[in-house]
Amino acid sequence: MSTPDRGTDRRTLIADTAIDLVAAAGLRGLTHRAVDGAAGLPTGSTSYYFRTREALISACYQRLAERDLDDIGVGLGGGGGGAPERHGDGPAGSPTLDREAAAAALAALLHRWLTVGRERQLARYELSLEAARNPALQPQLHRAGQEARIRAAGILAALGAERPREAAELLVAWTDGLLYDRLAGALARSRPAPDPAELTSVARRMIDAALAPDLGSGRDR
After folding, report:
1. Digits of tens for pLDDT over the chain (221 positions)?
2. N- or C-end of the chain: fewer Cβ atoms within 10 A?
3. Do 101 and 84 contact (CB within 8 A), yes or no?
4. Which residues contact residue 90 at a Cβ distance below 8 angstroms, ignoring those fewer than 6 apart?
5. Are 68 and 148 in contact (CB under 8 A)?
6. pTM given for the model
7. CB 168, CB 152: distance < 8 Å
C-alpha cells in the first residue's frame, strides 16, 4: 500500500485553509502567516510550499477545481450513488443517460453548493476577480475551469447533445449565474432557503435548453 506524500497532504491543507480564509475575510485576509496560523502549521510553512502570493492563489484555483470535480463525479459523472442512470451505449447523438435523473443530480449539486459548499463559492468569486485584475493569474484560472467544462460536455453528450462542447459552455455559465445570483446577487439576502424541488425544476429547464437542437451555430461541428 502506498504511503501518502506528506508534502502533497500539506499543500492540500494549505490550499483548503487559504480558501476558507478568503471566504471569511476576502483576499485582504490571505497572507502566508495567516494561513500558517489557521492551519496550525509552523510559521514559514506556507511560504515554503508557495513562495509568492500568486503561487498561493494558483493553488487555490487548482484545489477549488479538484473539490468541485469530486462533487460533480459523485452527482453527475459516475462513481457515486447519485449518478444519473445509464441506458447502455447508443449511437452518436443518442442518449445513454436519463435526462430526469441528470436534472435531479444537478439540482442536488446546486443545493450542495448553495448550502454546505456556500463558503467555497464565495471564495471562488473573490479569487476569480483577482485573476481579472492580475493577468499573470489568468492562465491558472483558465486551466482550473477547463476540466469542469470537459466533464459537463461528456455528460451532455451522454444525454444526446448534438454539440456537447457548446452546450457545456452554456450549462456552466447558467450554473455559475444561478449560484452567484443566489449567494451574492442583489436579492440574495431576501431569497428563501434553497428548495430541492425548485432547484430540480430549474435544473431540468437548463438541461432541456442546453440539449435543444437549435442551440446555435455549432463551434464544434
Report:
1. 334 466 679 999 999 999 999 999 999 999 999 999 999 999 999 999 999 999 999 999 999 999 999 999 876 754 333 445 455 444 445 566 899 999 999 999 999 999 999 999 999 999 999 999 999 999 999 999 999 999 999 999 999 999 999 999 999 999 999 999 999 999 999 999 999 999 999 999 999 999 998 765 544 44
2. N
3. yes
4. 96
5. yes
6. 0.84
7. yes
- Please enumerate in sequence order all residues whose Cβ is within 8 A of that of 87, keeping only pairs 6 or more positions apart, or say none: 95, 96, 97, 98
How far, in Å, CA of 110 to CA of 191, rounded?
15
Question: What CA–CA distance (Å, rounded) separates 188 from 66?
Answer: 27
**DSSP alpha helices (H): ranges in the chain?**
6-25, 32-39, 45-49, 53-75, 99-114, 118-133, 138-158, 164-183, 196-210
User: How far out from the chain centre does Cα 134 lie?
Assistant: 21
